Amino acid sequence: MSEKEIFQTPPLFAAQAAVDGDRLRQMTEEAARDPERFWLGQAGRLDWTWRPTVASGSSFADDVSIRWFADGRLNASVNCLDRHLAERGEQIALIWQGQEAAQVERLTYRALHERVCRMANVLRGLGVGRGDRVAIHLPMVAEGVVAMLACARIGALHVVLFGGFSAEGLADRLNDSGAVVVITADEARRGAKRIPLKSVMDEALARGVPSVRHVLVLAVTGLDLPMHDGRDLALGPLLAEASPDCPAAEMAAEDPLFLLYTSGSTGKPKGVVHATGGYMVWASFTHELVFDHRAGDVFWCTADISWITGHTYVVYGPLANGGTVLLFEGLPSYPAPGRWWEVIETHKVTTFYTAPTAIRSLMRDDGGTVERHALDSLRLLGSVGEPISPDAWVWFHEAVGRGRCPVVDTWWQTETGGILIAPVPGAVPQKPGSATLPLPGVELALLTDKGAVIEGVGEGCLCIARSWPGQARTIWGGHDRFRQTYFSFCPGYYFSGDGARRDEDGYYWITGRIDDVINVSGHRIGTAEVEDVVATDHRFVECAAVGIPHDIKGQGLVVFAVARDAAEPGLADAASLAVTRGIGRYAVPERVYLVPDLPKTRSGKIVRRLLRKIACHELDGLGDLSTLADATIVGRLIAVVGSAK
Ligand code: PRX
Question: What is the pTM of this model?
Answer without folding.
Answer: 0.96
